Amino acid sequence: MGEKQKIVIIGGVAAGPKAAARARRRNPDAEIIMLERGEMTSYAGCGMPFFVSGMIQDYNQLFNTAYGVKRDAQYFGREKGVKLYTRTEAKAIDRDKKEVKAVNLETGEEMVFPYDQLVLATGASPVELPIEGKELKGVYKLNHPTDALKIKEALDTGEIERAVVIGAGLIGLEGADALFNKMVDVTIVELQEQVLPGMLDPDMAEKLQQHMREEDVDLCLGDKVLRIEGDENGNVKGVVTEKRGFIECQMVIMSVGVRPNVELAREAGLEIGKTGAIVVNDSMQTTDPYIYACGDCVENTHLVSGEKVYTPMATYANRQGRVVGDNLTGGNSTFKGVLGTGVAELFEMNVARTGLGEVQAKKLGYNVITALHSAFDRTHYHPAHGLMFIKVIADRDSKRILGAQAIGKAEVAKRIDVIATAITFGAKVDDLINIDLGYAPPFSAPIDPVVHTANFISNKAAGLATGISAKEFKEKVERGEDMVLLDVRTPEQFAPKHFKDDRVMQVTLGDLRERINEIPRDKEIITICAMGSRAYEAARILQGAGFKDVKILEGGYNAWPYELEFEKK
C-alpha cells in the first residue's frame, strides 16, 4: 500500500474546517492537518451581534457544536481525526517541494508540513481607516469573537450612553442594532448616501432609513469621518466628521468592510483576480492544481452577470469548503457561482436581497424593468400578518428575472429564497407567475407577494400599467408639474394621512366610474392608494375611459419613504 494522502489546510474558521470534515468522511485514512494562526477555531462569527445585544448570553455558544462540545483541538482530533495546530501561522508555500513553512507564534518554533494537496482558507481582515484616534480606548471592530467580548464588557459597565458606528454595511448595521438593543444611542456615519449600499437599491434603502429614523437612530449619510478624539486618559470622547462636525460618544465601532487575505497566495505565485481575491475555477482549484482555495479569500462568479465578484459570506465559505473536501478526495464537485443572496434583521425590520439590483443591472447594460409592490406576508385577516415591500428586477427584452429585494416586518427571507431559486434555474417573469407555492392563512396569501410582484411586471410589459417610483413622483411634484394626484382611498383613510398638496383629488375607487367626468382629461394622472392594488384598478378604469397619461404610485403610501408635505422648488 502507498503512503497516506497528506492534506494541509491553512485557516480554521469556516471554510477550512468544512473542507477538513468533508475530506475525512470521504477518506478515513488521509492525514489531515489544519493550521490556524489564532487561538479560536470554527467559531460562529455571524452570532457575534447577538452576543453583544444579550440575545445570546453564553459566550461559549459561539464555539460549541449544537450538542454542546467546544470545537477546539481536542474536538477536531477525537471527532474529526484532524490534527489542529492553533497559534501557528503559515509563512510560505514551496510549490516545488509541496511544503508549507510555518511558525508557532507562542514558542517561535519553525515547522515544515509536506502536502499532497493544500487548501487556502485564509479568510479576510477588516479594513482599517487611516484616521487619527483609531488607537484610543473604546474603539472596536466587530470581526472576531474577542471584539464582541470586549464590546459586551464595555457595555456591561453601564458607562456607554452614546456610540458611533462607522460604516453602514451589513456588519455595521448589525453592530448598531446590537448597541441599540442595549439602550445605547447610536449614530451611524456612512460615506455613501445610503445604508446598505452594496445590498439595496436607493429606493429600498430609503424605506429602511425612514424606519431607522423613526426608531431614533441617527444617520449621517454621505459624510466622512475625519478623526476620533479622546480625553486626557486616552478614552474616546467623540468623532469628528466632515459635515456633521463633533459627535459625542464613548464607543466607536469601525466597520468599513474587509479585504481578502491573499499575501500567502501572492507570494507563492498564485493568480490574484481583479477583485483582489484569489482566482479559482469552479472546482475551487487555484492556478496550481494541487492547491485549492475557498471562503473569504477567493473571488466568485456572479450567476446572472457572469462578472467576477468578491462576496465574503459564511454560507459561501461552508458550501465551498464542502466542494473542496470532495475534490481533495477524488470527487468531482463544483461551485458554479453566487447571487449575493443575503438576509438580516435590523431594528426589527427584515431585509433581504438576491441577484442584481436595479442600479447594478443598468450599469451592466440590461434593459431593466422593475416592480415595487406592498403586500402582506399572510392573509390580511390573520392576526400575525406583516407588511413587506418587495421589488423584482427583470430584463425587459428576455423577461429573465435578474434580482429582487425585500424589506418589512414580515417573512421576507422565504420570498427572496424563492426568487433566488428561480434565478438559479434561469426563470423568466412568466415562470415566477406560474410557480406553485404553498398557501394557508398562517403562511401566505392565496396569491403570494412574489407572484403579485411578477404580475405587476407582466402588466407593465403588456402596457396595462405604468408605474412611477416614489423618488420620481416626489421630484415631479416638487418641480411644480401640472398634474392630478388621484387618491382613491376612502375618506376615512384619507383624512389622517395624505399628501399636503393642492393637486391632490380624493375620489374613492367605488365612486370613480360615477365621478369620472370630474377628472381632468388634459393632465397627467397619478393614482394613489395604500398599497397599490386600488391604484391599479383606478388606472385601468381611467385608461378604459380614454385617459391617455395615467401612472400608478408604486407601493402606495405604505412604501412612501419621505415627508407627506412637499418642498416646492
Which descriptors would you attach to this protein?
FAD/NAD(P)-binding domain, alpha/beta, five-stranded parallel beta sheet, 15 helices, 569 residues, 4 domains, 25% helix, single chain
What does this structure look like?
With 569 residues, this protein is of the alpha/beta class. The chain folds into four domains: 188 residues, FAD/NAD(P)-binding domain (3-Layer(bba) Sandwich), CATH 3.50.50.60; 118 residues, FAD/NAD(P)-binding domain; 120 residues, FAD/NAD(P)-binding domain, CATH 3.50.50; 93 residues, Rhodanese-like domain (Oxidized Rhodanese, domain 1, 3-Layer(aba) Sandwich). The strands form eight sheets. Strands 3-2-1-7-18 form a five-stranded parallel β-sheet. The protein has a five-stranded parallel β-sheet with strand order 9-16-10-11-12, covered by helices on one side. Strands 21-22-25-24-23 form a five-stranded antiparallel β-sheet, with helices on both faces. The chain is globular and about 90 Å long.
